[in-house]
Specification:
Length: 465
């Protein structure tokens, strides 16, 4: 069945290539205008997947099959698109989406999502807010939540959920006990916490955030989730109340990206040799694991075997953006990272020649982006993940042309609140009240988790809900 599917996809790809060669995306890396124009075409196709701007729809939500977290990731990507290109076409829908999803409690514990949201889901919205602060993305009106305060709110809730009772620390994947995955401590949840803590430390200069970043990284190492060779494993299941030796060793590109970038931020503010060692080690491990002999980025666990799910089809874009961010924090990594960025911008653009059947893709005909960048053609796989990753691949080649992210001392204007986040459900505050969990909630959460886990051959509980 897999072979047939691949054959069909290849045939579709070939047909669309023949039919649309004239509409392929032009990209000349040495020409800033060409890169911006290519990025603009791909971004247009990306935003066409978004329905939250339609009358009657909910701002910030993507339609099925995309989970809530991926919308947060998309708006983070669009903020970076603006920061790299100066094109503000999508700023308005981005602000609207983030502010709507920030929820009445101003912490991304959005009532419609909290029953199924994990720490990592909340995390991708917090990362978008953090980037908005660093990029000086236009500040919301004063009566609305502010970017920096939103990131601080989520940070404070993560602190309150740190679980020293099992595995010597760490965040659990899920926030609520009734969700499958509450007994799992995973690298992406702790990676979100680590990355946001490091960036809050840099932005605000507050040592408390730096101390947490140090503690989280050390915990990942002591739990065996980051190895001495800088392999980064998916997570550990808590068994028999406190046996955490059962590790899921699948490696995903976004885990390398999120820890690499956070370590680069920590090196930037401390100039400590240990952080430098971690930056160099993760960067080497990233190259070895996720880039093929031609320097093309591959989601190594599932891409070649053809079973990356909807979530996993978006991971390469985040690694790419965090690599670009690493060059801003540790400028001499640019030598190593630049060729990776440039090779993949060209490869990804070549995969953006599709015109799939109606309703899947509504961008400019002949510019839908596929998933595999190593083939030189459109592979027939399309969606938010593919489009967002290709956009990231192309736009990040502009990184050396823009200023480094701001801090409060260098012109960052976002207003913070160090004690934000105390009121939302799932915080440690006694004021936080959660409605009693219904059977329907349990069924919904459990059903989603097992359906996704089953969809990945041989995989275990590593999928985000
Ligand atoms: C969002 O909706 C408004 C109102 O319908 C429209 O004017 C605007 O062009 C839309 N923005 C995008 C980026 O689609
Ligand atoms: C929650 O869902 C309701 C009903 O669809 C919608 O009106 C509301 O805007 C949603 N709230 C958020 C924060 O998404
Ligand atoms: C920290 O980042 C800034 C901004 O990119 C850069 O100028 C500086 O050299 C970096 N510091 C270190 C120690 O790499
Ligand atoms: C630093 O951050 C911690 C943790 O959020 C907070 O309790 C403290 O008030 C902050 N200090 C300052 C000076 O903002």
């Amino acid at each position: 069945m897999v072979r047939i599917t691949r054959w069909i996809l290849r045939a579709l790809g070939a047909v669309s290539l023949l039919a649309h060669t004239s509409e392929a995306i032009e990209l000349t890396l040495s020409n800033e205008a060409s890169v911006k124009s290519a990025a603009s075409t791909i971004a247009f196709g990306l935003v066409k997947y978004y329905t939250g701007n339609n009358t009657g729809d909910v701002p910030g939500n993507l339609p099925d099959p995309y989970f809530w977290w991926e919308a947060g990731a998309m708006f983070g990507t669009l903020i970076e698109y603006w920061a790299l290109t100066g094109d503000d076409t999508y700023n308005k829908i981005t602000s609207q989406a983030i502010l709507h999803q920030a929820a009445p409690t101003r912490d991304f514990m959005t009532p419609n999502q909290t029953r199924t949201a994990g720490n990592d889901d909340q995390g991708f919205w917090a990362l978008a807010a953090m980037l908005a602060a660093e990029a000086n993305f236009p500040n919301p009106p004063a009566d609305q939540p502010q970017w920096l305060a939103l990131a601080q709110a989520v940070f404070n809730q993560w602190v309150s959920r740190w679980d020293a009772e099992t595995c010597g620390g760490g965040l659990r994947w899920q926030i609520f006990t009734f969700n499958n995955g509450f007994n799992y401590k995973n690298s992406i949840s702790n990676g979100c916490f680590f990355n946001v803590a490091a960036r809050l430390a840099r932005f605000t200069g507050n040592q408390t955030y730096a101390d947490w970043a140090t503690k989280i990284f050390a915990w990942e190492e002591s739990a065996g989730l980051i190895t001495p060779e800088y392999d980064i494993y998916d997570g550990a299941t808590i068994k028999n109340t406190n046996d955490c030796s059962s590790i899921d060793k699948i490696q995903w590109s976004y885990n390398h990206g999120i820890f690499l970038h956070g370590a680069a931020v920590m090196y930037n503010i401390t100039e400590d040799a240990l952080w430098r060692k971690r930056v160099d080690g993760i960067l080497q491990s990233t190259k070895d694991l996720f880039y093929d002999e031609n320097g093309v980025l591959i989601e190594q666990f599932c891409e070649e075997r053809g079973f990356c799910d909807t979530d996993q089809q978006s991971f390469k874009g985040y690694l790419t953006r965090w690599l670009a961010g690493t060059t801003q924090m540790v400028p001499d990594t640019f030598r190593t990272i630049r060729p990776l960025l440039e090779t993949n911008a060209v490869a990804a653009a070549k995969a953006c020649t599709g015109s799939p059947a109606a309703n899947l893709f509504r961008g400019v005909s002949g510019t839908a982006c596929g998933f595999r960048w190593g083939t030189g053609v459109f592979d027939g796989l399309v969606g938010v993940g593919e489009q967002m990753s290709a956009l990231s691949a192309v736009m990040t080649t502009l990184v050396s042309r823009v200023a480094a992210p701001f801090t409060a001392d260098t012109g960052g204007t976002s207003v913070g609140n160090p004690s934000a986040g105390a009121e939302g459900p799932g915080s440690s505050s006694p004021r936080a009240v959660l409605k009693p969990v219904t059977l329907g909630d349990r069924v919904a959460a459990g059903f989603l988790t097992s359906a996704i886990v089953l969809s990945v051959v041989g995989g275990s509980a590593f999928v985000m809900i």
